[in-house]
Specification:
rod-shaped; single chain; mainly alpha; 7 helices; two-stranded antiparallel ribbon; 79% helix
Amino acid sequence: MLTALHDIDFVRSHFPETLLLAREPVAWGNTDTVLTPENLLTARRMCEAFDEHAAECVVCKELVEVTSVMRLDREGLHDEMSLPSAGQVWWRAAIRARLEASQRVARPVSWIFGISSACAAGLAIALVQLLWSPMRVAWGGSSLGAWAAWLDLESTRLLLAVTNLAPLTTTAVFVLLGAAACLLLAPLALYFVLSDE
């Protein structure tokens, strides 16, 4: 990779190998051995000698004029550019960290919401299928008696289902209630555990 820079301190801190140019190569090799005061003085003298030559040569004079305009433009851009303060950089980093943390917390909650929505949809479909055939029979007969017979049949079936659940002990009821509470409170617990505040 080749990079052209004028910041000597930046070159010393980031580049292990350097080529020093001043209209022609001055030194090349390890950065510590190239950027010595002697080599930098030689490079400055070569640039000054070129400037003296440019006053006499038409082609070089044009080159000096173009580079001076480009240098002025570069300095103007540096003056216009403003770096944000350290407090502003810290504030932006803190906002970004909170946003990423809230997104991390929202992922499990959205998964739990999706799973519970799918379970609710499955339960609704099962309930519709369970009640579909008796409702179709009741709708087939439009009289009030048909609806009463269907309601009586369904209440009898529900009563039989509840009596079949009678062998459950109170411990099993508490276990079922605890499992339901865990399913309902798990998203809130995840939110509070994973939040920063």
